[in-house]
Amino acid sequence: MSMAVVGLAAGMALGFAGYFGGFGAFLLVAALGLIGFVAGKFLDGELELGDFFRPRERDGRRR
């Protein structure tokens, strides 16, 4: 499935949630979509849990 089709489906889901459920439902669907996206990246192996908790490096050296 292409990213354009995924974007279309996500946009339609957000549009329906916003129209029928109001702004609160729109935010809920957007937040759940983001959580699902991160979980999918994690399960595909493209994201590691340690990426969120490691300190950032500055100028190529650790502090």
Poorly predicted regions: none
**What helical percentage do the residues reach?**
55-70%
Kindly name the structural category.
mainly alpha
Q: Note the total helix count.
A: 1
Q: Can you write the helix and strand succession as a string? A: H
The N- to C-terminal Cα distance equals: 43 Å
* Beta content: under 5%
Task: Give the tally of β-strands.
Answer: 0
Shape descriptor:
elongated
Major sheet description: none
Indicate the mean pLDDT: 81
Radius of gyration: 17 Å
Structure description:
The chain is mostly helical and 63 residues long. The chain has a domain at 16-47. It is 67% helix and 0% strand. It contains 1 helix and no strands.
Secondary structure blueprint with pairings:
Elements: H1 3-44
In short:
The chain is mainly alpha-helical. It has one helix at residues 3-44. It has a domain at 16-47.
Keywords for this structure?
1 helix, membrane, 63 residues, single chain, mainly alpha, transmembrane, transmembrane helix
